[in-house]
Amino acid sequence: MPADSTWLVAVDRTVCLGTGVCASVFPQHFVITEGKSRPRAGESLPHEELLDAVDLCPMGAITVTDRATGTAVVPDD
Ligand code: SF4
């Protein structure tokens, strides 16, 4: 990933179960409000933690997209 990339971080609150896994492991990136997770910032410099959060979410609710290309960084299937 280019060092100057900007990632768009989103949580689909319609499927988030509010487990708090993302916010517990990566509180710098996620916070629970009204029983659901949301990203602390809609945009972020690339962080490995964001990729890990996508992997850890049991609902697949977190997406990370490259702002410049509009392609998904994860999930990438
Ligand atoms: S890990 Fe997934 S389901 Fe759990 S709070 Fe975070 S976004 Fe929601």
Keywords:
single chain, 77 residues, alpha+beta, Alpha-Beta Plaits, four-stranded antiparallel beta sheet, two-stranded antiparallel sheet, 2 helices, 6 strands, 18% helix, globular, binds iron/sulfur cluster
Plain-language structure description:
- This protein has 77 residues and is an alpha+beta fold.
- It has one domain (11-70): Alpha-Beta Plaits.
- Helix content is 18%, strand content 30%.
- The chain has 2 helices and 6 strands; from the N terminus they run βαβββαββ.
- A hairpin with a 2-residue loop joins β2 and β3.
- The protein is globular.
- Bound molecules: iron/sulfur cluster (SF4).
- Residues 11, 16-22, 37, 57-59, 61-62 line the site of iron/sulfur cluster.
Topology at a glance:
Elements (H helix, E strand, L loop, with lengths): L6 E5 L9 H5 L4 E4 L2 E4 L3 E2 L3 H9 L5 E5 L5 E3 L3
Antiparallel strand pairs: 1-4, 1-5, 2-3, 5-6
This protein binds iron/sulfur cluster.
Brief rundown of the structure:
Helix content is 18%, strand content 30%. The protein is an alpha+beta fold and 77 residues long. The chain is globular.
